[in-house]
Amino acid sequence: MSDTGLALGVISAIWAFIGIILPIIIHFVMAKSPNRGIVQICLILTAVCCFIFWIVTYIAQLNPLIGPQLKLGVIKMMLLEW
User: Fold this and answer.
1) CB atoms < 10 A from the CB of 47, how many?
2) Per-residue confidence (pLDDT) for residue 47, from 0 to 100
3) H/E element, 37
């Protein structure tokens, strides 16, 4: 279970850095640019969407709903051919 917590923490920290810290840095780096707000929103939206995609995929793999369901004939054929 510690691997799960470590993975959640590391990936969450990466996306939090991209979605929270980088827009703050951009605020000071691009102080006079008219595109500053667009760059900040792009960073925030990218971080949120990628984090949601990652977390849904990760959670789905923790406890899959179904496994492979093969008929007995297919299993016997696989044993003979492989």
Assistant:
1) 20
2) 97
3) helix 36-62
Sign (positive or negative) of CA dihedral 5, 8, 14, 17: negative
Give the whole-angstrom CA distance, residue 19 versus residue 52: 12
* Closest to 40 (Cα-Cα) out of 53, 16, 21, 15: 21
Angstrom distance (rounded) from CA 55 to CA 49:
10
> How far lies 18's CA from each of 6, 33, 36, 44, 79, in Å?
19, 20, 15, 7, 49
Using DSSP's 3-state secondary structure scheme, residue 62 falls into helix
Tokens linked to 69:
């369901």
Provide the token pair at 65: 């709903």
Whole-model pTM over 0.70: yes
